[in-house]
Design a protein that fits this description.
The complex is a heterodimer of chains A (238) and B (387).
Chain A lengths: L8 E12 L6 E12 L3 E5 L6 H8 L7 E6 L2 E2 L5 H9 L1 E4 L11 H9 L7 H14 L15 H14 L4 E5 L7 H18 L2 E5 L11 E6 L2 E2 L10
Parallel strand pairs in A: 3-8, 3-9, 6-7, 7-8
Antiparallel strand pairs in A: 1-2, 1-4, 4-5, 9-10
Chain B lengths: L9 H8 L1 H31 L2 H5 L4 E4 L15 H6 L5 E15 L6 E9 L9 H6 L8 E5 L9 H6 L5 E4 L2 E9 L10 E5 H7 L10 E6 L5 H11 L5 E4 H14 L3 H30 L1 H10 L3 H38 L7 H23 L12
Parallel strand pairs in B: 3-7, 4-6
Antiparallel strand pairs in B: 1-8, 1-9, 2-3, 2-8, 4-7, 5-6
Classes of the chains: A alpha/beta (238), B alpha+beta (387).
Bound molecules: adenosine-5'-triphosphate and magnesium ion.
The site of magnesium ion has 3 residues of chain A, from α1.
């Protein structure tokens, strides 16, 4: 099913398995995952706690090495990829975490610039301008000089989105980005994320438990006990 | 590489985010730096002080007894050897010098203290110091001394009295001596004070055992002569009851004595090493704490695509900044303390560029070494843990 789509796919997983621990403590967490995300597609991943969603996300994000099966992200095969190759893949992926994970010693602007700094061949001023642009895009044009400490949870998460997008990623991974936010703010943040990703043509894979945001997805994938459920729910095409 | 160009000064921002911790770090580094400055300054000052007079001798070659170990145990040798060496065509002139420690009575408290007395013929050049040369003729009168005004204060307020126009008299070996002038030499390891007298005066005050022979012979060579060659020649020709040194060798001989036969060099080097270790521990603590505190942030950076090398660079730059910021106050304080030491001990403790550079290198390596150790903590920054 995936072969002919591989060229336009940002994620292709075939028979992906993952286990934690060794010997008697070994636990199979992912089992034969077959999974594809097309470029520009917005996919939501849900499932009960502990079923392996975060594990799958860290594998796709090249934060862990692949143990078994095949995984191709942005055209780079990650099975048997070394540290350096995984780092280069990470550069092209934007990540948004449950906590905002901003650098406390940097202002909002500087935090976003840490993302823009990853772009090759740009002068300092240009990277700074990109950082400002993105902060404006997430509606924080007035808060450039503020430290994360002085921002609200939703604002921090928006800075994190700006930082992830400032590196011009082809793929965005988000793990429960709304978990620390109230329902309305969470909804706003995800709407923003969807809209900006659309504009960039950037694929999105988002893990969420939040039923209120399921409708932003092109496709909904459910996971249970380390397996993707066969009958994945498809949203109406947008 | 994004880090190869101008970028956000992350290392600096990490440091200044916690001003109290930064201040503690700088205080620690400054303290270590001052400790190193002091210990090395004392060591070099003591070694330099031990050769202040040696350096001033107006001589190309120096004759001493082979039994002489240092300036505090100058053995006599026959004066004839000096006369013999005059036969060499390249030797132009000589100055026989007597060198003994005698007891000087403090004119104020009447207490005695050991002082170094140099006896020479006032007509012969002794020290290449203009004030000594100018005042040497005053010693033609018997019982006159040129007193070293930098001698330790225990010898009495000689310089102050003399400057005030008073006639300053002291008693050495039962002989009444009168200060005819002041010279500026300085105390050393062996001698707390110095005085110059004529050979006639010297004879009257020298301890009875030492009246035969001289302790030191200064030779001046003709223009263009090679001291090393003449030294070789004289050493071959003269009997083995005398040793010939070039002036440089003589200075080195004295320094080597203090370096090797005393624990002074060791003690002060050890003190400096302790400063180094203390500094390392402090900087390591600070940087390790800093890395630990920011571990999730470092992991985030790695997840974003920054490499381990970038993060190591941040920690290394933190070390570099700490070194620079810590060195400046250490340097300034050391300058002040050196001045204080010069005043109170009269040791020639100066901020010479070599030591300033050495201490900077030590602080730098201290900080970078600690940064290197603290970097091991970065291995715990696993980007897979941050989701
Ligand atoms: N580093 C690890 N070492 C060992 N076991 C782990 C590790 N990380 C996760 N696990 C285990 O693997 C299983 C899947 O974890 P994972 O975090 O992927 O679940 P999840 O679907 O993200 O859950 P949640 O919705 O609660 O975030 C869990 O049972 C968890 O205990
Ligand atoms: Mg999870």
């Amino acid at each position: 099913m995936a072969d002919h789509r591989s060229a336009h796919s940002v994620i292709v997983a075939r028979g992906l398995c993952h286990a934690y621990g060794r010997g008697s403590t070994r636990r199979q967490v992912l089992q034969s995952i077959e999974f594809t995300v097309a470029s520009g597609e917005i996919v939501l991943l849900t499932g009960p706690s502990g079923c392996g969603k975060t594990t799958l996300l860290t594998l796709i994000g090249a934060l862990r090495s692949v143990q078994q099966g095949e995984l191709e992200v942005l055209g780079v095969p990650l099975q048997s990829a070394d540290r350096e190759r995984r780092r280069r893949v990470r550069r092209r992926i934007g990540m948004i975490f449950q906590g905002h994970n901003l650098l406390r010693c940097l202002t909002a602007e500087q935090n976003v610039q840490m993302g823009a700094d990853l772009l090759p061949g740009l002068a300092y001023r240009q990277r700074r301008a990109i950082a400002r642009q993105w902060l404006q895009a997430v509606g924080l044009g007035e808060h450039l000089r503020q430290f994360p400490h002085d921002l609200s949870g939703g604002q921090k998460q928006r800075v994190a989105i700006a930082r992830a997008l400032a590196a011009r990623p082809r793929l965005l991974l988000a793990d429960e980005p709304t978990a620390a936010l109230d329902g309305r703010t969470g909804r706003e943040v995800v709407e923003l994320l969807r809209q900006l990703a659309r504009e960039q043509g950037c694929g999105v894979l988002m893990v969420t438990h939040d039923p209120r945001i399921l409708d932003v997805a092109d496709r909904l994938v459910t996971m249970e006990d380390g397996r993707l459920l066969a009958g994945t729910l498809r949203q109406s095409e947008r | 590489m994004p880090w190869a160009r101008r970028r956000i000064p992350l290392a600096w921002l990490l440091l200044v985010r916690q001003p109290v911790r930064l201040a503690i770090a700088l205080a620690g580094i400054g303290f270590a730096g001052i400790l190193m400055f002091m210990q090395l300054g004392f060591r070099d000052g003591l070694f330099d002080a031990s050769v202040v007079i040696h350096r001033l001798f107006d001589a190309d070659l120096v004759l001493v007894s082979p039994r002489t170990m240092s300036s505090i145990s100058m053995a006599p040798f026959p004066e004839g050897r000096l006369v013999q060496s005059l036969a060499d065509p390249e030797v132009a002139a000589m100055t026989p010098v007597q060198w003994e420690f005698v007891l000087w009575r403090n004119p104020e408290t009447r207490r005695t203290r050991s002082i170094l007395a140099l006896g020479f013929d006032p007509e012969d050049p002794l020290l290449s110091d203009p004030s000594v040369q100018r005042q040497a003729p005053l010693l033609r009168l018997p019982g006159r001394v040129l007193f070293d005004e930098r001698s330790r204060p225990e010898f009495g307020p000689v310089a102050a009295w003399f400057r005030a126009g008073r006639s300053v008299q002291s008693e050495v070996s039962g002989q009444r001596l009168r200060v005819a002038g002041l010279v500026a030499l300085g105390p050393s390891f062996g001698a707390d004070g110095n005085m110059l007298v004529s050979r006639e005066t010297f004879r009257t005050i020298a301890p009875p055992g030492s009246r035969g022979g001289i302790q030191l012979g200064l030779l001046r060579l003709r223009q263009g002569a090679d001291p090393a060659r003449v030294q070789q020649r004289l050493d071959d020709q003269l009997p083995s009851d005398v040793k010939v040194y070039t002036k440089e060798q003589f200075i080195e001989f004295e320094k080597t004595y203090w370096r090797t036969s005393t624990a002074i060099g060791f003690i002060f080097t050890l003190g400096a090493a302790m400063g180094f270790v203390v500094g390392c521990v402090i900087v390591y603590q600070i940087l390790y704490g800093d890395v630990s505190d920011h571990l999730p942030e470092y992991a985030t950076l790695m997840a974003m695509g920054y490499g381990l090398a970038d993060l190591l660079g941040v920690v290394a730059r933190e070390g570099l900044l700490l070194a620079l910021l810590g060195y400046i106050p250490a340097y300034a304080v050391a300058q002040g303390l050196y001045a204080l030491i010069r005043d109170s001990t009269r040791l020639p403790v100066l901020m010479d560029p070599q030591r300033a550079g050495l201490v900077f290198l030590l602080i730098l390596s201290m900080c970078l070494f600690s940064a290197l150790l603290a970097m091991r903590r970065l291995a715990d920054a696993d980007p897979a843990d941050i989701f």
